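Sample intake sheet
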Amino acid sequence: MKRAFITGITGQDGSYLADILLDRGYEVHGLVHTPDKLKTSLIRHIAYDPDIIDQRLFLYPGSLEEIHRLIDILNRVKPDELYHLAGVSSPRLSLQFPIETLDSIGMATLKLLEALRQVNNPPRILFASSSEAFGSPPYAPQDEMVPLNPSTPYGAAKAFAMQMGRIYRTAYGLQTCSAILFNHESPRRSDQFVTMKIAKAAARIKNGKQKVLKLGNLSGRRDWGWAPDYVDAMWRMLQMESVDDFVIATGKLHSVEDVISVAFGHVGLSWNDYVEHSPGLTTKVEPMALCGNPSKAARLLDWKAKVSFEETICRMVDSEMDKATRPPFTEE
């Protein structure tokens, strides 16, 4: 039985990764920053399953700040694979909180790498990077050879972490790699992301619980995919004989207006009747229309995005429609 260790296990990607690894017969270990919130977290379906928790899923309270505790945990667990997914995830909010963003992503990754350098038989390590590290690239679509040119503190933090991973791979022999993830969505996405904000609004407006949706720039374009597809790509990366960095993307661009059109159309509404432009919601620093080139992943990982953009948005709306008919969660 292989063992995997996940930081950020309660996030969108971490929760899907835990599901996939458990399905594939792994023993899964995860670092949980806020264990008091497990009952409302994205892993509650496995964290409270008596056939899984403390049988094949093991959770440890703590943070990446506690290096000595982390070293102790990793030496006891002896994982084969480590997926580092923890850290803040909002490029927009990083402009308001640059120090916290750099600490959460950049310095936390460096501390993790230092901890791993002191672990006996360190595991293979995957760092979840982002297309935001490219910022304003010289050409499109972006592949693994594009120079890093971030335009937000979030992108700069991801670029720093990627570079440190490469340095530790070369200088110290750690088997590190970076998954350069373009935007990927799911019903587990936080509503601070525009896709979920739109999906939730479409469901709420359809059910009479909201009247309008206020958004900033509708022409902004992104390469949006389905999160579980991207998590599968991460797993494939650590199965390679030699670890390497990969762009994980669909290679297709869609606008915010496309998201709105699909979401509202899915519930039989004309979005023009409900969406209002709010200049105050426009980000001061807008990255270019980042579009990934996943050809290397297709060639070496036998991976490609399976779920279409339209299906991704519809699944998110369906999930929000389902939530609208459910009773509110109450903690026992």
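Comment: The mean pLDDT is 93. The first strand starts at residue 3 and ends at 7.
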